[in-house]
Give the backbone structure.
Amino acid sequence: QVQLVESGGGLVQPGGSLRLSCAASRSIFSFYAVGWYRQAPGKQRDLVASITIDEDTDYADSVKGRFTISRDNAKNTVYLQMNSLKPEDTALYYCNVLLTTFAPAASWGQGTQVTVSS
């Protein structure tokens, strides 16, 4: 079982940027992909970005062009660079390793809170 720890969240003004980190307890190279999810109060948890072992990336339409996912296999870490943040990006952000079906494969961590507000 791999443990995942998210960090880097905070309070930022609209238009600002944040970089989230997802640190894994062991190699993530054995998993098909890693994804970043978010969950706003009262809403379901949605996948917003993913990166495969071949470094193919995919994004939800709502974040395309603003968010960038990347990975550092040597550090077992995946990043989410978030630019041009909007109030609707406010949510608890989680990461998880993904199977080939894109089903999450690990237990959920604590997440990191992102709040976009003036």
User: Anything to note?
Assistant: Residues 35 and 50 are 4 Å apart (CA to CA). The beta strands are 4-7, 10-12, 18-24, 33-39, 46-52, 57-59, 67-72, 77-82, 91-98, 112-116. The mean pLDDT is 95. DSSP finds no helices and ten strands in the chain.
